Amino acid sequence: MLRADARAEDRGRPGGAGLVLTTPGARLAAILLFGLGAMALTIVVAQRASPDPGLPLIFWCEIGVGLAALTISGWVWALRPREMATRLFAVSGLATLAFTFSAASFAGGAVDPRGLAIAMIWLNAIGASGFGLAMIWLFLVYPVRLPHWPWITAVCAVFVSAFAVLSRGGHLPAWATIHFLTVIEMAAIALAILGQLIATRRAPRDRAIAVWFGLSVLFGAGGFITLNALPQVLGYQAVIKAGYAFMFFLLIYIGVAAGLRQYRLFELGEWAFRILFYVVGSLALVALDAALVGLLAIGPGMALGLSLLAVGFLYLPLRDALARRFTSRPGLSEQEVFREVVALAFQPVQQDRPGQWQQLLTRLFDPLEIRAASDAGDEPEIREDGLELVLPPASGIPATSLRYPWAGRSLFGAAHVKTAQHLLQLMAHADASRDAYDRGVAEERGRIARDMHDNIGAQLLGALHSRDDERKNSMIRETLTDLRDIINNASTGAPTLDETLADLRVETAERLEAVSIALDWTNSSGGTAPLSAAVAHALRSVVREAVSNVIRHSGAGHIRIGIECLADRLTLVIEDDGRGFDPETVVAGNGLANMRGRISGLGGELSLSPLKPGNRLVAVFQAGGGRERVT
Predict the structure, then answer these.
(1) Least confident among 165-174, 450-459, 494-503, 555-564
(2) CA 76 to CA 326: how far, in whole Å?
(3) How many CA atoms lie within 13 A of 241 on its CB side?
């Protein structure tokens, strides 16, 4: 998959619309079709040069080497088309195709006409010298870039080009043949490989790549040089004919294919084989169908049926077995993901959350690299043709970059983006639930604290000042009952307003009598409808707290409490003749804040004003509860 900016760049190129190959499969298919077309042309040329109806074995060896080199190098480039190393590797494969196919055209005999023969000779020389130059350049920049590699590459290119032109033009001694040039290039390749081994001596992974890839090239190209080119340069007969010696080049490309799995050459992994399997299967179907129709003169319908049968029974089982071997990976079920996300969201230690998040992502995608990202967007984004998935910040966790999923065996795709989005949504919902839980816990703690302060404190204070032991014991028992109700947030029923006020008047009168404060109680409510638990609780709490403040702080000798209920609107007025205070200047304590909170929770208002002497408290709220909430 290509990034959006890469696709936009492709669309912006002149003449690019409809022609740009934007997927790895399309690029690889185009390369293979080119190779098949070149093979067909080579077969035509070789058959015209051959006196026999068939073509010799050496021809098919050369054709096989060229197609294998083009396929594997094109496969690597198709997956990473913008990397310099993969482009150079693709050039080496194309050069191999050029010198093997041009040599194959002479396998049946002398090519006629002479102009075509000269063209094939030049193609062979360009392919051989181009392969050497591409490999020199490749080892100058991969796996690490060696010092002064641009200058070294330029010098090598000028030397190779000049040598090839001068030798073919007859301007060099007889020993300066194309074989001599390939020997020189092989020596330069060996020096470049040595430079990579020195440069990567402190980087184990890069050194392993340099050793593996370098040995593949040394044994592959070196085998051809040792058994064919070098003996001819020294004036001896070649040990093996060039067509058969070309088989050594397969070591290079087979080594690369194996290295993808072992060392992730060119930053690829086992996942790359999946694309190759599908494209090769499609091309095998087309090639087999064309062969049956063109060579065996079978009808199109029967040819297609036989091709499908062959591919279905022979190729697909092999492909599926290899795909399972290369792409099998662990994962998590939806239930496991949900449990992990909930556990992460409710993690009490915030500093541990990023580590747990990375563990969850590792279990989901098994990336080789996971680290913080500094340039993440608002949504999950795939980068580097599927090698990287970048996740945005989530619930206090920084943005995260995942690279090389499933230990380098696969690519990130659209399904994985949806998985990441689902994961982030789960995190957001779990985080919101945790916040709601925290708010609920805080509110419950606040409710208990207010009730303990307003009710329990007031009742214990009344019991402390009571001179009647029986009444004192009764008040303590009532306090214990209220304490259980506070802890359980339980309601003792739904009393009417008159019942609530009657109980509250008796309780208040006893408390004030114990401290010699006179009470003037006025009730004009006439309320017989049941009160909600919230309204009854708030009314008792406000009266108790106000009376407690008068007892503790005012030094009053008289207190007046009036309750009036009109049209379901309850007005509570409490006045005393004590020392009083200015509400605008005094610092309010918890008691006053609790009273305001309770009345506000019922949609009402509470005001406090000074009298001369004393203070006046007025609370107005709906007897039905207004915006009722349990506090």
Answers:
(1) 450-459
(2) 17
(3) 12
Asked if 585 contacts 624 with a C-beta cutoff of 8 angstroms, the reply is no
Query: What distance in Å separates the CA atoms of residue 162 and residue 534, rounded to the nearest whole number?
Result: 98
Cα dihedral 154, 155, 159, 162, rounded to 10, equals 50
What tokens appear for 253 in the block?
Answer: 């490309």
Q: Which amino acid is at 159?
A: F
| pLDDT at residue number 559 | 92
End-to-end alpha-carbon separation of the chain, Å? 56
Residue 278 has pLDDT above 60, yes or no: no
- 491 contacts: CB under 8 Å, gap ≥ 6: 485, 533
d(CA 566, CA 67): 98
What does the DSSP assignment read for 363-376? HHH--SEEEE-SS-
pLDDT at 604 over 80: yes
* Residue 181 CB contacts under 8 Å (≥ 6 apart), including other chains: 128, 129, 132, 160, 163, 164, 167
Give the single-character DSSP code of 311. Answer: I
| SS3 letters across 25-74 | HHHHHHHHHHHHHHHHHHHHHHHHHCCCCCCCHHHHHHHHHHHHHHHHHH
pTM of the model: 0.49
pLDDT exceeds cutoff 50 at 15: no
Cβ neighbourhood burial of 364 (10 Å; 0-12, 13-18, 19+): buried
Length of the chain: 631
- Tell me how many degrees the CA angle 342-346-352 measures, rounded to the nearest 5: 105
According to the per-residue pLDDT averaged within each range, which of 140-154, 175-189, 253-267, 323-337 is highest?
A: 140-154
The answer to whether the CB of 111 falls within 8 A of the CB of 49 is: yes
Q: Encode pLDDT of 46-88 as tens digits.
A: 887 776 667 788 888 898 899 989 988 888 888 788 888 889 9
- 516 and 550 in contact (C-beta within 8 Å)? no
Reply yes or no on whether the pLDDT at 189 is more than 90: yes
Q: What are phi and psi of 203, to 5 degrees?
A: -125, 95
Tokens of 132: 């050497």
Is residue 167 classed as helix, strand or coil in its secondary structure? helix
pLDDT at 125: 87
What residues have CB less than 8 Å from 485, skipping those under 6 apart?
491, 492
Answer yes or no: are the C-beta atoms of 451 and 487 closer than 8 Å.
Answer: no
